[in-house]
Amino acid sequence: MSVLEQLITKLPKTELHLHIEGTLEPEMVMALAARNGISMPYATSQELAAKYEFGNLQEFLDLYYQATAVLVVEQDFYDLTWAYLLRCQEDNVVHTEIFFDPQSHTDRGVSFETVVKGITRALEDAREKLNIESKLIMCFLRHLPESSALATWEEAQPWLSLIDGVGLDSSERDFPPSLFERVFAKAREKGLKVVAHAGEEGPSDYIVQALDLLQVDRIDHGVRITEDDALMDRVAQEKVALTVCPLSNTKLCVYDDMAKHPIFTLLDRGLRVMVNSDDPAYFGGYVNENYRALVTSLNPSSEQIIQLVRNSILASFMSDELKAHWL
Ligand code: HPA
Ligand code: ZN
């Protein structure tokens, strides 16, 4: 194993951009479909996995939402989350901040309670049995109207003690952050952390909107910031984190080659970037695999790798005490 490989494997890491529905492996899709008596348009997990070639974000999302249909009862959400947490243990991820998409479930008749109870029971077990800490972030689907986000916010009220933040995800183009100003203001008023996907496929102006209108604590993806020099300076100065997802960006054709990924350019310019897996079941790997892909294509120094890992701790929503422990 190379020095960098060892570093990646051994360093305790945090993950800040992970959609729990994006950890639904093809084998689990087929197993849950059988368990819940749901027919899928694929005969085998291999047949499903063969479809994981995406030309853009929307092609991925279409398949991702289709697969969530196999998640029905609380135990399904528990099993999904627990399987991801076991992968965290393998990759030495000690703290993870998990997104979930309630609307993709409640719109199918699965209750908010079912979703949140299944996920948080697994998070609680991981705290006790695996020593893995976590935060939970509820995302609004931006392709749905503001009224749906506001209704979801109301549904979440009895469960707010289990939810640490809100986010914004799904189809980015034509769905600017400005559409969700009011629901984000409500979340901030309740003291929740706020984040938003911006500048993945959408223009860098969406990053500005997320900062100025939604007042986010972090930007998810944000790689299209490279198109705006002044914004790069601002984000560096304000120490706003960008939760970068390298394998996601190549798999969704934001870059046609990992060698063109700007993560180290951004890092060397002083931006708080780090490595995350986004939807690992679909994009070819969990967090260590994302680091390995960067090493293979971009030949970073060990100092750069260490800085990425440190940035992830600094940008996390863990307590200052825990940050000091892991730094
Ligand atoms: N972008 C936007 N929405 C998403 C993603 C993503 O990468 N993954 C799951 N929902
Ligand atoms: Zn994402």
Automatic annotation (TrEMBL):
One of its GO terms (cellular component) is cytosol. Binds 1 zinc ion per subunit. Keywords: Hydrolase, Metal-binding, Nucleotide metabolism, Zinc. GO terms for molecular function: adenine deaminase activity; zinc ion binding. Substrate binds at residue 279. Residues 12-327 form the Adenosine deaminase domain. It is an enzyme of class 3 (hydrolase). The active site is at 200 (proton donor). Zn(2+) binds at residues 17, 19, 197, 278. The record marks 221 as: Important for catalytic activity. The keyword Cytoplasm does not apply. It comes from the Bacteria. Its EC number is 3.5.4.2. One of its GO terms (biological process) is hypoxanthine salvage. InterPro entries: A_deaminase_dom, ADE, Ado/ade_deaminase, Metal_Hydrolase. It catalyses: adenine + H2O + H(+) = hypoxanthine + NH4(+). It holds the Pfam family A_deaminase. Its cofactor is Zn(2+). CDD domains: ADA. NCBIfam families: aden_deam, PRK09358.1-6. Catalyzes the hydrolytic deamination of adenine to hypoxanthine. Plays an important role in the purine salvage pathway and in nitrogen catabolism. Belongs to the metallo-dependent hydrolases superfamily. Adenosine and AMP deaminases family. Adenine deaminase type 2 subfamily. This is Adenine deaminase.
